[in-house]
Amino acid sequence: RYDPETSAIVYPNGSFKGFSYSAVSVAVVPTPAELDAIPSLQVFQNLNWTHYVQLPDNMPPQIQQIANQIVAAAGATTPYDKILAIQDYLKDFTYDTHVKPPTGVNDLLYFLTKSHRGYCEQFAGTMAVLLRALGIPARVAVGFTPGTYNSGTKSYQVTTQNAHSWVE
Fold this sequence. Notes:
By secondary structure, the protein is α+β, with helices and mostly antiparallel strands. It is built from five helices and eight strands. The chain is globular.
């Protein structure tokens, strides 16, 4: 079945070796100009996305301030401009797989204000939180990169080293 809330395909009996399925989808690829032409997300208010803009009660107030400062410094007014401003801001941080995993909102604040170092988990989580602070729905997705192809077995080897997260 398809779960519209999470956009996930769920097989009720779980997966098993040799399990396969097929799906047909349409890739909608709007242009930057089309995205920038959306002045407000209010046109989408009939969508149930309130849980994608919620933040924990213990979120430090500095998070909201930082999000507002980033978009103000970029002169961002549309949702698309704001998303790009957050993305561009984080591009100046250093990708480092040797930092300790985050354990809470204070680690996110430390990443934003002090270390500026992290890996996909810090980048995706931080961007999602900053966007949510601006009222822009966001979530962190977790998955795997393709792994390493083995031509002998005609299969891919996917390990925990291929784990990845990103913001949607």
